[in-house]
Specification:
The structure is a single chain. The chain has 991 residues and is an alpha/beta fold. It folds into 5 domains: 302 residues, Nucleoside phosphorylase domain (Rossmann fold); 154 residues, P-loop containing nucleotide triphosphate hydrolases (Rossmann fold), CATH 3.40.50; 111 residues, no CATH class; 112 residues, Serine Threonine Protein Phosphatase 5, Tetratricopeptide repeat; 115 residues, Serine Threonine Protein Phosphatase 5, Tetratricopeptide repeat. Helix content is 53%, strand content 10%. The protein has 39 helices and 21 strands. The strands form 5 sheets. A 5-stranded mixed β-barrel has the order 5-13-12-8-14, surrounded by 4 helices. It has a 5-stranded parallel β-sheet with strand order 16-17-20-15-21. Strand 3 and strand 4 form a beta hairpin. Helix 1 crosses helix 8 and helix 31 packs antiparallel against helix 32. Keywords: TPR repeat. This is Nephrocystin-3. It comes from Colletotrichum fructicola (strain Nara gc5).
């Protein structure tokens, strides 16, 4: 009777991508085992068996490549949780180089082994393009020591034997059987090696028929089918099928490569493997399938022999027990970074008990959806559960799920913790090194999917904008948006909500283990066991919340405390808000109730659409806000302003500089008098310069000019005209004059500063380059294009040398040159500059930074001017989406992009769409600009004129005349007042 085995009994994976490789693998087994049941999520087909007492799982791939290999390994490890390592066995392309065992030929075997600073396998097509060159990034893990030791022991033993055990294993395959004839040794006569530059002459025809035999590279005879030659060293893995001998040799010389294949990088990324490849071709244009069978056979034969040098006890040892104890390499210390928890949590005993019951260990995935209205305490309840039961889990992980950006950033922080605090797998570090946020998310999810990492708890907090089954839960999303928006806001709530809605399921781990909590305001998130948080029913719980947040020890003794608690209707957020207010004042509960009721009535009159729940919350908030307003109008205004920002990204530093500047400004005049009369001579000039910076920052340009001039006079006298401090003040004066439109005076200052800096600091100092760049901008505004180009070129070369090609100062110069070339009618050069700037900005600042978007927009203008309307449309749409996200729908940059799309649609004959864009742009300008500014704002006048032209095309003469008249009036006003209009604005450029 055969032994019954479970999936836990299999410890070694044998992965072979091709059918011919799988057949060879099966022929190497001592015995075959019956199939075992597996999860419906596992799409692999497995063959089970054993060699020398080692239980082995054989799996193929549906197609070759690193990605399919990674998928197969991930699913295999979920089904067979005790797999320790793998053998990646099959065919590969050889590099015909000399090794200790002779020259690599067809039918030989190459085995991965660390050499030349590499791990034995490397991904040759994975990296970054830097300075026009490809730089490989990341590293693959070396084979496990037990396999390296076995390979070395096998090599030693084979060298001493007269009969080759590997060749004997090849003969296990009965080549007389019709289905196995492909494994026959083709013979040396079919081993053709040509020079790297000699290309195969006829596609589909054999070399013997079409290629020139005189071109064959002569080699010593090696027609010995009694011994399989094995070479050990570096194997290259990539997604490309290499059929180019010149490329083969170039890559091989760089890293000492012996072989090329297509699966190792995907498998080894997170699973220790040894790669075994039978050589079936030379990675050149002459490759064919003749050697596939024999190459697969010798690779499988070598892999079989390794099992006779592996200790069974070592391989079969299981590293985790059946109760789900996590491996130490997956344990993260309990932390909740960035999560604000209350000091004293009360109530919710029933809900905490249910959470504990639903998330008990079962060996499978457990998911709870904790839902309830905003302010019910979902986050705090989850925090309390995590603190109470954190020891039950190997890691408690908190992810911010309010939108996809926040969730991806949470995953990024998790990946950084994994690398910092555990013996992390190589794929996590590689993803971080590649700076690809989506790749980092996938790497963190893969870490959660690891078979031995099965005791974690992941909390997805604030998943409120729900998009499941391609259907937005509109009422819930709108309600969530309404709760977070200012009361007087005019933005469409449905629009705001739907723009953030997303499907959370792709962000959940895919494996069937671990515990998940999702907190949400929506009851439609039916992804697990639903637990609803309702209002507090016990008034003693409400009193406890107010008492703890107010810090009033005897709060419950206040005769009106119970009335206040009942009035706030068991809403935890309202109760804690009231408590926070009471902690700052001496107000009694009776007085607070009076303020609360007044606020309730005001809201009832002003916002009758609010539900009772909302009005209770807003009433407590308004009481607190009015108190702040009475204490400090400025603080209240700042709070109103901050209501439009993401609360997670607010920090003290954002206003600290402004506050300091404003406070200093009040004392500046008196300080100047004191400095002028009593300061030490060596510090006086520095102080005047600082006052100039202060006044300039605050827009008081006349005072700034006076300070700079006094500083300059003092420095010239004390330090000399060529001292670097003197030159800094000269440069500051140049900037000031430029901002005032005094270009001649600005030019004189810049030129003086430049001459002095070149002498004192050198021509390549960044301070010198900044002045050069300023001169370029000035020359361009004066129409001195050749001189501007010379300055830009010089600044660019200097920045590249001093700061590198990817520094933002370098990229700014590149972008400025692109604009200049565009103005000169040099579109090819402009496009090259824009594309370089775009790639650099995307890498340095991200795809959604305004500098990136400005370059995208300018590329759209360039494409449009060249008649490349499809490409222009793609650029405009990308710029528009980015501006809407980064700056909002009504920012002038957004509206300029809308207007550009209108022009494009008009040129394409899509007049209705063009009209919509023009109208949107014009309405936006009218909304955000003061009427006086709007009259002479060139982009708005352009929109008016283009609308007039469009109405004329549509035959709407009256409307066309109306828009033409408005545009011409504005132009006349500009001419009459001799207003200085920037050339960039009139063309729609951003610099």
């Amino acid at each position: 009777m055969s032994q019954e085995r479970s999936r836990d009994d299999y410890k070694v994976a044998w992965i072979c991508p091709l059918e011919v490789e799988q057949i060879a693998a099966m022929e190497m087994l001592d015995e075959e085992h019956p199939a075992l049941p597996k999860s419906s999520a596992d799409h692999n087909v497995y063959s089970l068996g054993s060699i020398n007492g080692h239980n082995i799982v054989i799996a193929g791939l549906h197609q070759p490549g690193n990605c399919p290999a990674a998928t197969v390994v991930a699913q295999m490890r979920m089904t067979f949780p005790n797999l320790r390592f793998g053998l990646l066995v099959g065919i590969g392309g050889g590099v015909p180089v000399q090794t200790d065992n002779g020259m690599i030929r067809l039918g030989h075997v190459v085995v991965s082994k660390p050499a030349g600073g590499h791990s034995g396998a490397l991904q040759y097509d994975h990296g970054k393009a830097i300075d026009g060159q490809f730089k490989r990034t990341g590293a693959l893990a070396p084979p496990p020591a037990v396999l390296l030791n076995a390979a070395q022991a096998l090599a030693v033993q084979r060298a001493r034997l007269r009969v080759d055990p590997v060749q004997q294993n090849v003969r296990r395959i009965d080549i007389t059987s019709r289905g196995l004839r492909r494994f026959l040794y083709p013979g040396e006569r079919n081993d053709h090696l040509f020079p790297p530059d000699y290309i195969h002459q006829q596609q589909g025809a054999p070399c013997a028929a079409e290629c020139d035999p005189s071109k064959l590279i002569p080699r010593m005879s090696d027609d010995d089918d009694m011994f399989v030659v094995v070479h050990r060293g570096n194997i290259a893995s990539g997604e490309l099928v290499v059929k180019d001998a010149l490329l083969r040799d170039t890559l091989a010389q760089q890293d000492g490569l012996l072989c090329f294949e297509m699966e190792a990088a995907g498998a080894i990324a997170d699973f220790p493997c040894l790669v075994v490849r039978g050589i079936s071709d030379y990675c050149d244009s002459h490759k064919n399938d003749m050697w596939h069978g024999y190459a697969a056979a010798v690779a499988a034969a070598y892999a079989r022999q390794l099992f006779f040098y592996l200790p069974v006890d070592e391989v079969q040892r299981c590293s985790s027990d059946a109760t789900g104890t996590a491996s130490p390499s997956f344990i993260l210390p309990f932390k909740l970074p960035g999560v604000n928890s209350v000091n004293y949590f009360v109530a919710r005993h029933e809900e905490l008990g249910r959470l504990h019951e639903e998330l008990k260990w079962t060996g499978q995935r457990r998911t709870v959806v904790l839902h309830g209205l905003g302010g019910m305490g979902k986050t705090q309840t989850t925090i309390a559960f995590a603190k109470k039961h954190g020891d039950d889990y190997s890691a408690v992980l908190w992810l911010d799920a309010r939108d996809t950006t926040a969730l991806k950033q949470s995953y990024q922080r998790l990946a950084q913790r994994i690398v910092r605090e555990t013996a992390s797998l190589a794929y996590v570090q590689n993803a971080i090194d590649n700076e690809d946020l989506d790749g980092i998310v996938e790497s963190a999810k893969r870490w959660l999917d690891e078979p031995k990492n099965n005791r974690w708890l992941v909390i997805y907090d604030n998943y409120d904008d729900v998009l499941l089954d391609s259907h937005i839960t509109t009422n819930q999303s709108v309600r969530c948006a309404a709760e977070m928006a200012p009361i007087s806001g005019k933005t469409s709530q449905a629009e705001a909500a739907s723009s953030k809605a997303y499907d959370i399921r792709p962000y959940l781990p895919e494996t069937d283990h671990g515990a998940v909590i999702i907190t949400t305001r929506s009851a439609t998130v039916k992804l697990g066991q639903l637990i609803r948080l309702s209002k507090l029913g016990d008034i003693s719980d409400s009193l406890a919340i107010v008492a703890s947040t107010s810090g009033r020890d005897h709060f419950s003794k206040d005769p009106d405390a119970a009335t206040l608690a009942r009035q706030l209707d068991g809403l935890p957020l309202a109760l804690s808000t009231a408590g926070a207010y009471l902690s700052q004042v001496t107000t009694t509960c009776a007085e607070y109730l009076r303020l609360y009721e007044e606020s309730w009535l005001r809201l009832q009159k002003g916002s009758p659409q609010l539900l009772e729940y909302d009005r209770a919350l807003y009433s407590t908030w308004e009481v607190s806000f009015r108190h702040i307003q009475q204490q400090s109008v400025g603080a209240a205004m700042l709070l109103q302003f901050w209501a439009y920002f993401d609360s997670e990204d607010l920090c003290k530093e954002q206003v600290e500089y402004w506050l300091v500047q404003r406070r200093l400004l009040q004392h500046a005049d008196q300080c100047i008098i004191k400095v002028a009369t009593s300061a030490e001579p060596e510090t006086k000039e520095w102080m005047f310069d600082s006052f100039g910076n202060l006044y300039s920052d605050q827009g008081r340009l006349k005072e700034a000019e006076a300070m700079y001039e006094r500083a300059l006079q003092g420095k010239e006298k004390a330090l000399g005209p060529d001292h670097t401090s003197t030159l800094d003040t000269v440069d500051n004066l140049g900037i000031l004059y430029y901002n005032q439109g005094r270009l001649k005076e600005a030019e004189a200052m810049y030129e003086r500063a430049l001459q002095g800096k070149e002498k004192a600091l050198g021509p390549d100092h960044t301070s010198t380059l900044d002045t050069i760049n300023n001169l370029g901008i000035l020359y361009k505004d004066q129409g001195r294009i050749k001189e501007a180009e010379a300055m830009y070129d010089r600044a660019l070369q200097g920045y590249e040398k001093a700061l590198g090609p990817d520094h933002t100062s370098t990229l700014n110069s590149v972008h400025s040159l692109g604009i200049l070339y565009k103005d000169q009618g040099r579109p090819k050069e402009a496009e090259a500059m824009y594309e370089r700037a775009l790639q650099g900005y995307e890498k340095a600042l991200g795809p959604d930074h305004t500098s990136t978007l400005n370059t995208v927009n300018n590329l759209g203008i360039l494409y449009s001017d060249q008649g490349r309307l499809k490409e222009a449309e793609a650029m405009y749409e990308r710029a528009l989406q980015g501006y809407e996200k980064a700056l909002g729908p009504d920012h002038t940059s957004t509206l300029n992009s809308v207007h550009s799309l209108g022009i494009l649609y008009s040129n394409q004959g899509r007049l209705k769409e063009a009209e919509g864009m023009y109208e949107r742009a014009l309405q936006g300008f009218e909304k955000v600009l003061h009427p006086e500014t709007l009259r002479t704002y060139v982009p708005a006048l352009n929109a008016l004129e283009n609308l007039g032209r469009l109405f004329e095309q549509l035959g709407a003469t009256d409307r066309a005349l109306e828009h033409y008249d408005r545009a011409r009036t504005g132009i006349a006003d500009i001419t009459a007042s001799k207003a200085r209009v920037g050339s960039a604005a009139s063309r729609g450029y951003w610099s």
